[in-house]
Amino acid sequence: MPSVDRATIERALSHTLDHCDFPELGTKYEGKVRDNYTRDGRRTIVVTDRISAFDRILGTLPLKGQLLNHVAAWWFEKTASVAPNHVIAVPDPNVLIAHECKPLPVEMVVRAYLTGTTSTSIWVHYEKGARAFCGHALPDGLKKHQRLPEPILTPSTKAAKGGHDVSASRDEILALSGMPAADFDQAASMAMALFAAGQRIAAERGLILVDTKYELGKTPDGRIVVIDEIHTPDSSRYWKSATYDARFAAGQDPESFDKEYLRRWLADRGFTGDGPIPAIPDEIRVEATLRYIEAVETLTGEAFVPNLEEPIGRMRRNLGIG
């Protein structure tokens, strides 16, 4: 059970962090979840409480930004010996300061199971009869949520804000993006090594790292490093290993921690990315946050301690901008 009770999360509903405006920190770029500020070779990343799924921003979840920032920083530290990353400091529960990098024009997605609910997922393609995905041949006879013979790299293009990412093979990504093959191959190798480390660490915590995505970028001196986030419940799918075999044998969905809870709630109401977004009740938002907390605490083995201060003033104080 999460160490944070429902009442505490409900209190946080009154000041979720939807956006911020800190011109003192430099030029701003707003992503789906993160507000980024660049100045003097540094990037200040403010992790908001925005929730995205189906390539749409759906609203906010209380404390989500703190949880994501906390667990991403934890994973960056754990995997620094596997692949270098961009982190400099974590001065606030919602803020990470990093070296400014030029993002590679590809997301490195690694999958170990035949699953997913979106139109771009490997399971939806397989269910429709496809037996190749991003250049990988898939055997007949696989079932939903089944483990693949080995983890596979299924890279995708990086869509502009509001657009949809497109999964493709290595050759297709190189043709679409124009990126050097050597950069792609180095990034791919780093992604597979990180995934192996992530699976090992997750398994020690009783979890299965099902799939994830990695963002990588180049430092000014040309090194490729991991950027954005890593192995968070936003970028990754986790299942509970203790119940996986029995639930798979019974044809049931695995027990999950990640955004699948909210995705399933939306899909049950007919929303899978197109059209108006259904209003998400507070009780669903709180339940989703409870699942995030349980995932983060299970992964790190540490109790999550939320900060319930009003976030804008707290961040200004911690960043020294008044």
Describe this structure in words.
The chain is α+β, with helices and mostly antiparallel strands and 322 residues long. The chain has a single domain, classed as 2-Layer Sandwich (D-amino Acid Aminotransferase, Chain A, domain 1), CATH 3.30.470.20. The chain has 9 helices and 14 strands. The chain has helices at residues 6-12, 64-79, 122-127, 170-177, 181-204, 241-249, 260-267, 282-300, 311-319; strands at residues 27-30, 34-39, 42-47, 50-53, 56-60, 87-92, 95-99, 102-114, 132-133, 136-137, 146-153, 207-218, 224-227, 236-240. Strand 2 and strand 3 form a beta hairpin. Helix 2 packs parallel to helix 8. It starts with 5 loop residues before the first helix and ends with a helix. The mean pLDDT is 94.
Index terms:
322 residues; alpha+beta; D-amino Acid Aminotransferase, Chain A, domain 1; 5-stranded antiparallel β-sheet; 14 strands; 33% helix; globular
Q: Would you give the CATH topology? A: D-amino Acid Aminotransferase, Chain A, domain 1
What is the helix fraction of residues, given as a range? Answer: 25-40%
How many discrete structural domains? 1
Number of strands: 14
Termini distance?
38 Å
Count of discrete alpha- or pi-helical segments spanning 4 or more residues: 9
Question: What coarse outline follows from CA principal-axis ratios?
Answer: globular
- CA radius of gyration is 19 Å
Using the coordinates above, name the CATH class: Alpha Beta
- Class from helix and strand fractions: alpha+beta
Let me know the average pLDDT: 94
Q: What's the SSE pattern?
A: HEEEEEHEEEHEEEHHEEEHHHH
Strand numbers in spatial order across the main sheet = 1-2-3-7-6
Strand content: 25-35%
